[in-house]
Amino acid sequence: MRLISEFFNKSFQFSLRIQRTRQPRLPIGIQERTFQLIEDRLKLLDYDGPVALSCDDTKLLPSFRPYYDHDLGGYYLVGHVGEPYQIADIETFREVTTSHSLEKATKV
User: pLDDT tens digits for 5-49?
Assistant: First the structure.
């Protein structure tokens, strides 16, 4: 963002943030809709170059986080080893995060 601020004024940066918040969030995991959303974003940028999908061993600061997935219609706990865990309410979130039943992930 700093590089952009050297060339564009603050109102432009603000409008970029607004545009980013209005775009649909990527779903949990890699699925068909993920590719469609990426394709749509690349079209908005008028980009027609190469694209790659990869994974790495990026180290994480281990933590749990609620994430709302519109496609699945609910909040899910991410940041642990295994599949996303659906959380129904704040009490479930507290129980799961304090019970030590889930192992925090250390890599992406």
Answer: 565 555 555 566 666 666 677 777 777 888 888 888 888 888 888
Q: How many CB atoms lie within 10 A of CB 93?
A: 17
Largest CA distance in the chain: 49
Q: How far apart are CA 23 and CA 21, in angstroms?
A: 6
- H helices of 8-89, in order, are 10-22, 32-44
Q: Where is 12: in which H helix or E strand? A: helix 10-22
Q: Quote the CA–CA distance of 51 and 43 in Å, as a whole number.
A: 12
CA atoms of 99 and 69, how far apart (whole Å): 24
